[in-house]
Structure formats: structure tokens, C-alpha cells
Amino acid sequence: MARRRWTAFILAALVLLGTLGGLGGYAALKPPPEVLESLEVEPETVEDWSRVIAYVPLDDRTDNLEDAVYLAEASGWRVVLPPKDWYHTALDGQAPNANGTPYGDRGAIFAWVRDMDARGCDRFLLSLDQLFSGGLVNSRSIGGPQAIPFPDGAVLDETGAFETYLLPLAEDPANRVYLFDSVVRLSPTVGYLGFGEAEYYGLREYGMVPRPALAEADLTLENVFARYPYAADGVTPAEDALGSDKFRHTLTPERLEAYLNVRRRKLTLLDQVIDRVSALPGDTFQLLIGIDDSSNTENIQYNELRYLKKRLGPGTALIAGLDSLSRLLIGRLAQEEYGYQVRAAVRYVGGTEGRPSSEFDLYTLQEVVDLHIDFFRAVIVPPEEAELQIVVMAAPAEPDRAAEYREELLSILEENLAHHIPTVLDEASNNAYGDALEQALLNRIPFGQLVAYAGKYDQANVTGAAMAMGFSRYLYLRCREDREDAAQTAQVKQIANSMALTEYILHTRTPLNEYVQSMGLNRNNLLPNPVQTLRIRWKLQSLFAPECRKVRENLRGSPLLTGVDPWQEGTIQDVRIVSPYFPWHRTFELSFTVKASL
Predict the structure, then answer these.
(1) Closest among 422, 426, 417 to 498, alpha carbons compared
(2) What is the pLDDT of residue 18?
(3) DSSP assignment string, 446-461
(4) Cβ atoms of residues 422 and 457 within 8 Å
(5) Helices 459-479 and 325-338, interaxial angle, to 10°?
(6) Which of 37, 49, 181, 275 would you call most buried, defined as having the most Cβ atoms within 10 angstroms of its Cβ?
């Protein structure tokens, strides 16, 4: 009898939870229907394709889905997406996609791109990691050419698919095709194809071993590949030059060969795409290559990056960061659409912009910012001459002066907003100032008046996110006279989304991980279980709801920047953050729906 009552209670609770903001029991780890409804535009409903982007995401994490869609909409475009199952990544033990694999349906997406072209779309934003490999994670695991099955029964390799399905887009001079791809990082993904944390750290340490640096004239694919197995002297096997023996046992000959084959495949495919894009007449195609997790050493990426820089031609670029690539290209699209060159000023606070912020950063913060300024073809001018100011918060050079740096940042922001100076806030300190800075920003700065804000993750991706939002949104406000209510609402959504994700990282994720660990579960892979899922969802709700209230209190009733020449403002009536879920069934990233009204 007790067991029946307990079972009945669980079932009732699951039903109840399913009614609270889209949170479901078993299904709670999956996107609630309203999340997808808020993002997806059915191609059949599009009557005017002139302001539509056909978007193939890197994967279905927040950075590549909600963040990109909100930015596009805030900049005056609508986005059409393939069915979500076609670009979803499933970690070990999770239900596979409809194609029976844990990665995306490559052939179906290639065909979808051609279908969007036939329907009249002329703007394409396409992840080659998704098209060639079924997503970022799988691209780190494939060690050779992969046959791609198509809905019509045809089978092509990656190069054949590119030439058959994508290159013909260049035949229409009205088309604009923005491709993005990655330089594979130093180690694959934990929890995929049986890959664990020990293997991750073992291969990352192996990848970090300095390789023989090639002279400029010797930078060929064959020479890059030939140096992969060796340490800097060109003789010692790289696995014998590790900094420690802690993970040496994971570096079996089979695993090392598979790892190097992944790198060979990725670099070869990039080389082939550069060849084809550079040979096309005009600028119909552009390719942006992002550098995944790296370090400022002569590691295994060193010769790869130098080779790619040597090979870059018309329409190709290399930049730090990865999860901001799609948003950067939306900003590039805006810059090319309006043909306007922004006069910008960059103001640093904190004093550490001249060095990398962590072992995962290839460039200094200032170098990262400069790369993005160049990408958007902006002109750097003194602050008094700038039409857009980019304020970058770096970690404190002198930790005992953290309060002074914090006040300096707040004073700059308050003065800019009081004098109607369009401002981007790039909070790239990696939480070096703790809760004091975050709370002061929420108390004193109306985020709706900022052109853009980003404040999570590493300095490359956070800077890319802030710059993309800043330039794309500013160009819309500066150059579009017929600004739409939908774009203004989308701006509230993307600002709220960025704020809430920062709050999740700062205040929710760590205690949630501790709770998950206390249950004996793996925070990197929350396999569905009715009782455990229910408990995790309730804990998430109790931890995250207060953080969402902070965001709502800052935005609700506050001004929203809706025009810059002249300065115009609306009022944010309300913001709600509902239906949180884990897109990859792990606590590292969180997704949710933002509802806003003006």
C-alpha cells in the first residue's frame, strides 16, 4: 500500500510539474514545445523572403540556437531552421535522433538548404561542422572521409556534397552564403562515444606538447601532418614529452592514431573549402573559421593555424572563439547590408587586457577585441569622436583595487547612458570581481539601454557575443528607418537571455552540480529517470527562479534603446523567463524561453 501511495504521488507530481512553466517530468530534459514554437518559422508561412536567413546551426546549444535567433530578429531578420532533430547532438546513453545516430542528419540538411534556395531565400548561414559531421561534437570524433546518405538515395562524400548542394548557390548573384567552421580543439568531448574525463585530460596534455615549428615556406598539409606525432625536437614522440604521467595510461597507440586522424580530416576539409570559396568570383560565399579551445603555446594547433593563415584568401577569415561564430556572421551580414562603417572606441577597465585570461586562450583580450573590430570593418577613434563605445571589463591587474575598477566601470556606463552614448558592455573578467560587480550592475545600470551585453564563458566567446550583438544591433538602429516592434521585442529577449545565463553560471550551476553529485549522478549526462528528473527540476527551479527575478526587476519598467540617430527609447513592460531545460541533458548549459512585451 505504501509503495502504491508513493508511486501515485510521483505520478501526480510529474503531471503537476508538467503544468508549471513547461517543466515536465520525463520530458523535462527535452525542450518544452513552447521553446521550439518561439524559435521556429515554418517555410510555408513565409510570404516575403527578402528579410529571411536560412540557418543551419553548429548544434542545439543555447549559444547556437536561441542566442543566434534572438540576435537576427533584433537586427530585423527572421530565421528559418531545419527540424531540430536534424541538428541535435545526443551524448552517450541518450535517445538517438530519428536517423538512428547521436549526430545530425547531414544529407537531409544539405537537401534542406537547396530547398530554401528554391523557395526564394537568398541569405544562408551554414555550419560546416554540422553539414560535414553532424555537429561540433561528432566533428571531434571522425577520423576519415564519411559517406553522406541523402533522402533521394544518393550517397556522397563531404567534398562531393559541398560541390553538389552548396556551390550551385553561387550561380544566383542575389545569394549571400556565410559559412563557418572550426579548427578542432585539443581534445574531444567527454561523454561521447565512451570518451571520459581521464581520456580528455590525457589527450589535451598530449595536444599541448610543443611541436616542431615549421618555417613559412614549409607550411604544407603534408609537413603539418608529419609533425603531429613528435615533440619540439622532431624526434621524441610527443607522448614521451608530457608534463606529467598522470594520464599517460590513456594514450594508447590506437587512441593517438584516431586523434591524429581527426585532425587530418578537419584540416583537409578546411583546406578544400578554402580552395573552392577563394576560387569563386565575387563575394557570394564567405567563410569564417573559429579557433576552438586552445592555448598560447606552440601546441599541435600551432602549425595548423599558421597554415590556415597562409591559405586564407578572398572571403575567408580566422578568428578566436567558436560559439559566437554564427552571431558574428549575422553582424557581418548587417555591415554588408547597410554598407556603413562604424566609428567605434574601445575603453578597457581592469588593466589585464594585455594577457590571456586562462590556459584556454590563444590571444590576449586586446588582441581578441582587435580581431573582432577588424572583422566588422570598424574604424577606431577616440571616445569623444565615437558613435559606438565598447567598454571591456578585464580582470583586475591589482586585486586589492578591485573596488576601484568596479566603480570605474559603473561610472563610465552611467555617464554614457546619461549622455545618450550607444554602449556595448563586454564583461570579460571571467567573474574575477565576484558577486559585487554583478550586483552593482543590476542595481545601477538599466541593461535595456545598452546596445549589447555579454558576460559569460571565456574571453574569446564572450567578446564575440558582445561584439556581434553590438555591431548588428547598432547598425539596425542607425540605418533602418522602418524599425519593427518585433525587432525591439527580440532585443529585450536577447539582453534578458544573456543576463539570465550569466546568473545561472554565477549562482545556480555550482549548487545544482553539488545537488546532482549528492544524488550520485553525473552532471555531464543526466540520463532520464522519472524520480531523479523530478528532483533535479525542482532543485533547478528553486535555485534559478530568484536569479530570474533579478533580471526581471532590472528590465521591467525600464527604458529600451530603440533608436540612435536621434536617441529614442521605449519602455519594457514585462519580461518572463520560463521553461528552463538542459539542451544536452547536462548542467553545463541551460536553455529557456524569454517572453517580453513593450
Answers:
(1) 426
(2) 42
(3) -GGGSSEEE--S-HHH
(4) no
(5) 30
(6) 181
Give the cell for residue 25.
Answer: 517530468
Contacts for 130 with CB less than 8 Å, ≥ 6 apart: 56, 57, 58, 59, 87, 104, 106, 109, 136
Dihedral angle sign, alpha carbons of residues 265, 268, 270, 273: negative
d(CA 413, CA 423): 8
Q: How far apart are CA 270 and CA 541, in angstroms?
A: 43
CB 130 within 8 A of CB 179: no
Predicted confidence (pLDDT) per residue in 94-111, tens digit: 999 999 999 999 999 999
Closest residue by Cα to residue 183 from 139, 120, 130: 139
- What is the bridge-based pairing of β-strands 591-597 and 574-581? antiparallel
Per-residue confidence at 433, pLDDT binned at 50, 70, 90?
Answer: very high
Identify the burial level of 385 via C-beta atoms within 10 angstroms of its C-beta, where 0-12 means exposed, 13-18 middle and 19 or more buried.
exposed
* Pick from 347, 350, 365, 346: nearest CA to 405: 350
379, amino acid identity: V
Q: How many Å apart are CA 382 and CA 305, to the nearest integer?
A: 33
Q: How far apart are CA 40 and CA 36, in angstroms?
A: 6
Contact between residue 522 and residue 547 where contact means Cβ atoms under 8 Å apart:
no
- The rounded radius of gyration (Å) of the Cα atoms in the chain is 24
Give whole-number Cα distances, 137 to 89, 158, 189, 484, in Å.
7, 17, 6, 37
What is d(CA 496, CA 66) in angstroms, rounded to the nearest whole number?
12
Q: 3-class SS at 191?
A: coil
Q: Is the dihedral of CA 444, 446, 452, 455 positive or negative?
A: positive
Written as one letter, the residue type at 387 is E
SS3 state of residue 397: coil
422 contacts 448 by C-beta, under 8 angstroms: no
Tell me the one-letter amino acid at 484. Answer: E
Residue 121 C-alpha cell reads as 531565400
Q: Which of 463, 497, 457, 510 is nearest to 577 (CA)?
A: 497
Q: Is 48 exposed, middle or buried (0-12, 13-18, 19+ CB in 10 A)?
A: exposed
Q: What is the pLDDT of residues 230-252, one digit of tens each?
A: 999 999 999 999 988 899 999 99
The grid coordinates listed for 271 are 583546406
E strand segments, 414-557: 423-427, 452-454
